[in-house]
């Protein structure tokens, strides 16, 4: 029995038990069977969560692009690797075979080298969802440069923070991007960001929208002429198993984003193995994940996982609403998509538009549906199941994080019976547990607690770039010898997990993780603002929306509040990005605080959620009188 392709629930339990009883043997078998190594490992795993220090496949030598590209050339050179679907449905789709991908990655890698990039250098990639984004990522990996992809919806300040934090030498961007009917001036945003980044000496610019842009002499160069001159072969850099592959930033509950560092071998093994099993990918299938490569879902399940399996992976540049709300389903029909992986926020937005845009298209190619990014509510789950999967395609509700690198809790389609709103069972090798607030492990079923992981897995992040202490404090200090996810969960009578949401100050809006602190910092930049606090409240489409409580410096502020609201959202757009705009802004005289000065967000959350019948324990409040005032003036 190959443990690579699980087909029945019994088989799942067998594989799972084996993976927990002897994790090293289990992962060694997976790594032996399915990948190309220059040299195999001396040691499968060493770990110590107190430091924390985790190493997988130590001593092994490999290059991940050889596993994602070169090794498919003997049997699958002419198979489509990347199927690019542009923003505009009238522009032709582009199919890139494994052979062509090899050539494009090699050329790009040679350009990087000529431009002075070598192993270990950090390269920031700020590109829209066009093939060059995937090619740039793989070109970095080819030569051992560490890519740091920044989602091209982030503002110039957010971009600058990320570039500086990991001291990137180069930025790869485009003149602009298409987003539905709009264009976005990406190069302008990069120019603004780089005013504050002295580490960057080269900017490679991809031509996409043919807009007029500024090219800074000596710094900015067009990519295409360099590619035209580049050699079509590039010898892969031989990497150690634990060499960093990439950095990806994720919001934290305090100001600075965290640059999660992922390393090479473990990440490759885990993303490839999960991809194959979670989507039950077969060689002839067309797989489509609608995420952006700027997020971990795109890294692991558009680029690395699918390509390591020799899959055909669709890359979509556009948005679900352009030119109309049938766009996703039109693409499914056009490319006969077999596995479709998206986020609850997209499902809710599409469900709101009714069935007409769905019924226009033939969705019979679909076999497996995926969900990721936030809890999927029951209504959205049923809509997806009934109308997209026609009750024939299992929904894999996949729980995982930027930090975990790959899918952690998920059904295995056709093996695990699904249950609406439940991510169900741990993937083989994953040992979840629930903890109470006092640090006791909750061993029974039918309990709620904080979700932790007891044992290392190959694709876990190894550190936060430049701040190992913060890595330890954030993930390994709340509970002894356990990785703390920051999420709450419920475990039902058969051991299925239902993720209930964040227990910290991270709010998930339309599937984007937003830390409250950077948004509050931005608001406080407004000259009229004294203090602010952000909470989430339920929103039909976005899952959560943001509610801001703002104290003005001058209570008698004469400007109209509506203008101030606009200005505050403008500042947020500049500092964090438009996704962090507030839906509601309430001006208030004070904020409920504990004696130690901590804002009691719990109370603010209840007020924002109109759930004020029981505010819970308010005995530690320093200023109970403001609570009534806030309630009286709430939206
Ligand atoms: C993959 C990704 C991580 C946070 C995580 C959760 C939430 C993700 C689910 C989910 C319920 C799910 N990485 N989350 N997937 N909650 N069910 N299936 O999203 O780093 O951007 O976000 O997202 O709170 O901690 S992420």
Explain how this protein is built.
The protein is α/β, with parallel strands linked by helices. Helix content is 31%, strand content 24%. The protein has an 8-stranded mixed sheet with strand order 12-11-8-6-7-14-15-24, with helices on both faces. Helix 11 (296-308) links the parallel strand 16 (286-289) and strand 17 (312-316). Helix 5 (98-114) crosses helix 6 and helix 17 (516-524) packs across helix 18. The longest helix is centred in the N-terminal third of the chain and has 17 residues, at 98-114. The radius of gyration is 24 Å and the shape is globular. The model has no long low-confidence stretch (mean pLDDT 94). The chain binds 5'-O-(acetylsulfamoyl)adenosine (7RM).
